[in-house]
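Spend some time on the protein that follows and explain the fold to me:
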Amino acid sequence: MDKLRNYDVSFSGLKTGKHEFKFEIDKEFFQLFDTEQEFTEPKIAVDVLLDKHTTFLEFEIKVDGTVELVCDITNENFTHPIENQIGILVKFGEEYDDSEEDVITIPTNDHAFNVAHLIYENVALSIPMKKISPNISDEDLEILEKFSPKEIQKEEEQQSDPRWDALKNLKNKN
């Protein structure tokens, strides 16, 4: 947890208004978390814009950079651009609470807010579900199409069962 302190944004000595903080993150940042990433070689610049108000804080976190992904089709590595931004409202209360989606409550006596988890989430949300290399060839796509499961054509004329037809007639009479 001590290494995450590098991502604390201290707001106690700041005047009301907008303030900007910059971070450069790489694979060492992601090693601070006990999760396995779907990417390698991250080179990401993070801009944290803090708008300090008298009773709350507004954070806007922008990430911009690249990561290496593995193509789902060809298993080749390729560079994928990362660009995303999230906004969070931080208010003060009795204890830490992040149960709301865009609002985080921190204790009133805190003097800094750690943005490491927000940066991590922002990058994770930027990774596409389907990782397809821009260098994929038409031949690879043809092979994929050839072996993809096909939709079974349904019979246009369904034969009706006389037992069910009798039940449908009962339903229609009521």
Summary: The beta strands are 8-10, 17-25, 40-52, 56-70, 77-93, 103-107, 112-114.
